Each structure stands twice: as C-alpha cells, then as structure tokens.
Amino acid sequence: xxxxxxxxxxxxxxxxxxxxxxxxxxxxxxxxxxxxxxxxxxxxxxxxxxxxxxxxxxxxxxxxxxxxxxxxxx
Length: 74
Prior knowledge:
- By secondary structure, the protein is mostly helical.
- It has one domain: YozE SAM-like (DNA polymerase, domain 1, Orthogonal Bundle), CATH 1.10.150.260.
- The longest helix is centred in the C-terminal third of the chain and has 16 residues.
- Pfam families: YozE_SAM_like (PF06855).
- This is UPF0346 protein LCA_0996.
- Belongs to the UPF0346 family.
- InterPro entries: UPF0346, YozE_SAM-like, YozE_SAM-like_sf.
C-alpha cells in the first residue's frame, strides 16, 4: 500500500537537524491544513505554492518528493 507524501515526510522530521528536508518536515508537521492523505505531485505543489510560507524554496519540496518516490520503489 502506497503511503502518502505527508506520512513519508514525517519520517524525515528531526528538530535537531537543520537540513532543508528535515526543516520542511518539521514545519509541515505544524501545518494543520497540509494535505495529509495526498501523494500527487501537482496537488501537493499547488498547495505549497499557495500555503507553504514556511518553505523557502520549492526545490526543497522537489528534493523531498524525489526521496518519497524512491522510497516507494524500494
């Protein structure tokens, strides 16, 4: 069963890690509106472009999404 992007992202959380993907995960955790059951790149990207003020660059999302896809293929 394919996990949602959010569920994958939560595996990257670490308050002591200042890497961009970890910080994205930490901030997404506090985003009450984050689409937690979504896995579609376009829908997630659109949400973050409109609501992800905590994300300094969409390149971070792209990197995290790439890691998510790789984890789903393993």
